[in-house]
């Protein structure tokens, strides 16, 4: 992973509810149906309203690691990028690759739409059971690599709902800063 101070300075870690963020896009840790569910998915659909569900019905779902973009409807964010992360089994079932694809493809949708800010939840670390420390590394490395390789430096917000994930992300970013 190639990272500079300039790149790391684009990364912001905060604790809270992702549905309240005024950014170009928030990312939804959806399921493959894209028709809503529990956790962050349910919170996003409740806050966005019926229009989001209607648009999602036209998308024919998504495979784990894919990402599809919709409008933000009643959310303060302009767009929602929906991506199902992997369900964690044993760590040897391609989970890391699939989780990386979720972050990579979300960044790709942002770039295609010329977005300048994006907020991510900790994909797969809820009901899908991905170990939080490992998931954090994949989340941060994949996004930094994308920004570096694509020369696309935008504002990244990692919005952590639980204090455990928040502490993990804070510490990891501190670690990366110390390596510079
Ligand atoms: P997954 O099925 O991908 O594991 P979950 O929604 O169960 O998705 O959990 C993903 C992460 O989203 C968890 O860390 C959970 O704490 C977090 N989360 C739940 N609600 C919100 C919210 N409103 N904003 C941001 N993160 C949230």
Any key phrases for this structure?
globular; alpha/beta; 180 residues; binds adenosine-5'-diphosphate; Leucine Aminopeptidase, subunit E, domain 1
Describe the protein in words.
- Helices cover 42% and strands 17% of the residues.
- By secondary structure, the chain is of the alpha/beta class.
- It has a single domain, classed as Leucine Aminopeptidase, subunit E, domain 1 (3-Layer(aba) Sandwich).
- It has a 6-stranded mixed β-sheet, sandwiched between helices.
- Helix 4 (95-112) packs parallel to helix 5 and helix 5 (132-150) packs across helix 6 (163-178).
- The longest helix is centred in the last third of the chain and has 19 residues, at 132-150.
- The chain is globular.
- Bound molecules: adenosine-5'-diphosphate.
């Amino acid at each position: 992973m190639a990272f500079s101070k300039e790149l790391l300075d684009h990364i912001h870690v905060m604790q809270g509810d992702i549905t309240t963020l005024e950014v170009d896009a928030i990312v939804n840790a959806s399921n493959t149906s894209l028709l809503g569910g529990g956790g962050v998915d349910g919170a996003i659909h409740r806050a966005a309203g019926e229009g989001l569900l209607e648009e999602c019905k036209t998308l024919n779902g998504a495979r784990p690691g894919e990402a599809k973009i919709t409008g933000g409807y009643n959310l303060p964010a302009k767009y929602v990028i929906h991506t199902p992360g992997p369900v964690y089994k044993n760590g040897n079932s391609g989970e890391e690759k699939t989780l990386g694809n979720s972050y990579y493809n979300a960044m790709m949708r942002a770039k295609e739409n010329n977005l300048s800010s994006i907020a991510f939840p900790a994909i797969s670390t809820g009901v899908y059971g991905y170990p939080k420390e490992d998931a954090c590394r994949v989340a941060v490395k994949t996004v930094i690599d994308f920004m570096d390789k694509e020369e696309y430096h935008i504002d990244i917000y990692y919005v952590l709902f639980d204090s455990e994930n928040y502490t993990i992300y804070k510490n990891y970013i501190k670690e990366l800063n110390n390596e510079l």
